[in-house]
Amino acid sequence: MIGGPDAHGPSISRRCDKTAECDTVAGYRVSRWNAATRAYQPLHAGLLSAEPRACTDTTAARGTTHFYTLEAVRADGSVAGTHVWSCVFQDRVRSKARPEVAAQRPRP
Question: pTM of the predicted model, to two decimals?
Fold first, then answer.
């Protein structure tokens, strides 16, 4: 699992290395911690298919740390495995340097 923010929100890329277990997985569920309800809540209806292997939380608030679970779910609804991660979705704006600041920079 590789998790981190991209331009649109926290994201995760997944892969399954345990072939025998992977063959039993019907889909995936991504959930985010909701502090108000004190529970993880799915970010989508149903299960995500095995493809594509990445997803992004486009509803995440900037400037906040979010906590997630990724569950590999079998056809009978049981969980084959769970991965937990957190991501800081920073609220930073990149801007061009102001002319007065650029003028003060040392030159090589």
Answer: 0.70
